[in-house]
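Annex B. Sample input.
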Amino acid sequence: MKTAPQSKLSSTLCLLILVSASPVFAQSHADRIDELEAKTLAMAEELAVLRAELEKERQAPDSEDMQSIRAESVAARQAAQNAEIAANEWKNSNSVTHLAGYASADYVSPENGNAAFVANFNPMFHFQFKDRILWEAEIEVQIEENGDTNMALEYSSIDLFLNNNMVLLAGKFLSPIGNFRQNMHPSWINKLPSAPPGFGHDGAAPLAEVGVQLRGGIRVGEQSKMTYAGFIGNGPKLEGEDGEIHGIDTDGFTGDPDDEKVFGGRVSLLPFPKFEFAVSGAFGDAAVVENDGVDFEGDPTRDYKVFGVDASYQWNNLDLRSEFIRQDIADEQTSIAPEGGIWETWYVQGAYKFADAKWEGVARYTDYTSPHADKSQEQWALGVNYLLAPSAMLKFAYESNTGLVGESTDDDRWLVQIAYGY
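Annex B, continued. Sample output.
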């Protein structure tokens, strides 16, 4: 659409063309010539004015409405570009973040105690950059009997993928000794609501380690393969009480009071799918660093050894597994707790799914021996599980326990648990 100055300019140009096209005979009259010259001069002046106004309009700033429209257009174009980038980002992503974990709610009714509800939550975090590095961590959140919330770092490690068969871990990691602790302990994987005796704190099986670990797997033939894990870490702490070693603390520590490292690992063979046999162990030195609940320094180091064997087999709806672990602390006559000890446990477990794999029956026998009679325990555990989903189940179990009379290890228990992994 033409503006007013542009319209005037067009009219003037048309008039000039008409004047220039006048008949020749008009030029013979002097007065007519003078009149035309005067009109031409006037039109030239008007044309100059119109050109000036047009140039001024071209150089004038946009109106507020026009500026707003242009700003909205730029913003819309930028938003469209951002949306396109976000929509295609997953195709060229260099990093992936993943949140996983599990949670459970329990009802525990001991024979000679008060029944109570229990709950815990274990979130897991994973962050991977390309196929080169992975950070993984698990936090355990539990509600204590007094209502306080207890939080612990189960593991946190940085994993470097050296090649297709080898990974280097650094940080805090679950102990590779045995199979239950590193692979079976999450509530939605464990077939029963409780861990086998001896696989908890101050038990026979190590829990975690802070250090470095090299692990991986290789093929052996067409169907067989072998897995391996080797580590070096700060090792356990010994707890003294009344002149005896009360327990072996293997929670994983960033300090090393005895300045002695522990070396260990696990090697497993899978000769055919669904069957695994493994041997694991560790050795090093340990020292008493806590006595009667108080930090203690200067106790001499002593030999520390761990040995384990585990096996598992799955066939159709049948799941069989067994495990043996032994921790050995040597005597040290100059120590505040001179006598060592052996913590040993083993279990066998069978589980079978039926009714279109919606139900599962479980039976487990465990024999745990500790240097302290009040900790030793023999247990039969029977359970029935209903699978709500592939990673969620409702468990009903009964434990028949035999231990020192009057101790909790001798109390039979009923347990109900709902567990969910995500």
